[in-house]
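quick one, 251 residues, struct below
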Amino acid sequence: MSNERLRSALLAQNMTVQQLAEEIQVNPKTVERWITQGKVPYRRHQYATASVLRVDVMTLWDDTRSLDSVTDLSKAEIVTVYPHRHVVPTDLWREMCERARERIDILVYAGIGLAEDPRFLTVLKAKSKDVPIRVLMGDPTCEAVIRRGIDEGHRIMDGKIRNALFNYRPLFTSHPEITFRLHDTVLYNSIYRVDDEMLVNTHVYGIGAYMAPVLHLRRLPGGGLFDTFANSLHQTWEGARPVTDADITGA
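---
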């Protein structure tokens, strides 16, 4: 029986059998047999394949051994859980960015706490010389942003976003390598990713994000938990738009 889930995962990443084989260092004919004959690869190749295709290993092979293993790996990806964002060490956000070697991605509605921290802005400026930085914020005019403001009980989420954009505005011209976009999605988590490390601030109905839990994650190949949030960030970025002056001024 063929493995259509593996075939679909390849198509979703726009990869060929040859490219996958090169990435995980196996013969292309071996990958073909995994797809066309439903052959189950060695465990190390399962994890390597899942990592390259950005999916949970259980999406591709659902044998019992993989289930037990991926569950343990996902648990191991959790460094710690903070009951509220306001108890996260204040220096952690900056220290993570200072460690960046490959990327910095920020997905929020407003993220006003970071935008108002001059030390954090200084870190972004310094790291922009070395790694790509993407900042993804809520569209202040969209329904999801207005709804989130109501859910948090203050009705000013759009104003928070414009305030944050105003603080970031000097970076738009002085550091164009830092890319800003606006999204109109219903955001269930704010995500701060630095390479294979991540802070996930959950959104809970009726309270501000500063009171909601935060997961500190580190990616492990085949674990799945980290990649789930990373894929959400990627999809939101793909559907977002550039920032305009009108977004900042509200004109």
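Strands lie at 78-82, 104-107, 133-138, 178-183, 189-194, 197-202, 214-218, 241-242.
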